[in-house]
Amino acid sequence: MRSQRPLHPALPTRRRTLTSAAVAVGAVFGIVGLTGVAAVSASAYSESTPESRAIIAAAMPAAAALGESVRDIAAEADTTVASARVALASAEAVTADIAASGLDVGIATTTVDTTSIREHIERLSATDPLPLLFLPAMSADAQAETDRVKARTSALREALKAAEAERAAEEAAAAAKRAAEEAAAQAQREAEAAAAAAAAAAAAAASANTPDGAKATARQLASERGWGGDQFSCLESLWERESNWNYQAYNSGSGATGIPQSLPGSKMASAGADWQTNATTQIRWGLDYIARAYGSPCSAWGHSNATGWY
Fold first, then answer.
1. Do 123 and 27 reside in the same domain of the chain?
2. Whole-number Cα distances in Å, 178 to 164, 181, 191
3. Among the four residues 72, 116, 129, 222, which has the most C-beta atoms within 10 Å?
């Protein structure tokens, strides 16, 4: 009887070889997919045949390249998360700034919807390993939402800046108006004060130009020279006879002028340019003249009594 021999005696051996090699390669790619590190467990490698080991060795460069790709994808996801966190913080900041300003920024909704970007951050930041094939798409979606949040935040920030600039301009205009009003009020007060001072000076001058005012001025100025009441009595009599203490007195015959009857009247300009209108200026000149010419009012009075002039 013919013995029963397998039609393909090498097939089981090759299947075992391919199976062990597939297990080993699967171990390589499985570890690469989870950790990004091209490695083979010791047990898987030791149980493999030389042929499967050769297959593993041939697969190692591809496994290493795959590991590099995994690291790149993970790094991109981390970058996307970092960018999303920055966008989220900026959105929260602009919302808070608008609320604190109390300004109408001209936009109906002054908040940024951050629900979606928070969900993207949470998913990409999860500690559980994510399927590698999902990461690029998830990162792309997260980046798109991040861009939307950034654009919305930028629009709100620009609107807030415009509103702040408008408020600053309004405050500056109000301040300038207040300053102008205060300057006008101050100018009015100063004008009124100057007018009051001028009126008071005019009133004082008018009072000083009366006979009684002139006598009061003469008494004070004579006292400053050391001339007491007796000397002033002589002075009062002298100038009463000369001009009746009238600063506008004028002798048409001689040209003598003013209270002291200066001849000519222009001599009194040495005491002040206003000698024609100011009794005090005339009195200062007259007292100086008496002191130089006679030494005292009573001496001048005596001379006037003796000669009819002084």
1. yes
2. 21, 5, 20
3. 222
